[in-house]
User: What shape does this take?
Amino acid sequence: MLFSMRRLIIAIDGPAGAGKSTVAQRVAQELGYLNIESGAMYRALALKALEAGAAMDEEDALGPLAEQSRIELAPAPGGNRVLLDGTDVTLRIRESSVTEAASRVSAHPRVRAWMVDRQREMGQDGGVVMEGRDIGTQVFPYAEVKIFLEASPEVRAERRIRQEGGDCSNGTAVAAVAEEIRRRDERDRTRAASPLVPAPDAVVIDSSTLGFEQVVARILGLARSREMEFPTAQT
Ligand code: C5P
Assistant: This one.
């Protein structure tokens, strides 16, 4: 009889800019798991809504728009490609107008219900790292590893500016981006449908003071100890 490792569901939630995407990508790579960025799915729908001229506060328009969509994440070197109804929108979903719209479309329960169903389909067999805002609370409440990754708004603002090739020595610019991040967090944390909160059994990691490698090592440590529990018997 052979024993194989369990293939886990690892949920990584937290606010924008806490480092979820890079951490999730690396953890998935180390474990040989699939990496699913749920935010990219909300972004793809937001792009579709912008192009359709839909009002971002109209659930009756946005729900059916989601239900008629095909959003795929296709693994590729350097990260997933995002396909919306068959078209590659990987770069366009990072535009700031889409970022703002994604935060608004994601507030609607009907949109979320559709997204959660798709995300469950993608991750149900395990062997997946899924990152977002509600993965440990709504999408996979039974995930074996749940992480809530945080960082202060100032640290997140500086990371964002550096990522975009900007200059962090300009205090006013950093404060403006930090303010924008705080506003988006506030909307995610206070919305009625699946607000951004840590699951009661999530391990909270603050990446303000920890380096990237330390965060990754901590999550891998948790994952490896869970993989060894109750190994699956294979005959
Ligand atoms: O993670 P990212 O910044 O790409 O997500 C874009 C937006 O999608 C977030 O501001 C958030 O409002 C929403 N989102 C969500 N639930 C998720 C992932 C993202 O509401 N699981």
Notes: Residues 30 and 220 are 8 Å apart (CA to CA). Residues 16, 38-39, 42-43, 102-103, 106, 132-134, 184, 188 surround cytidine-5'-monophosphate (CB under 6 Å).
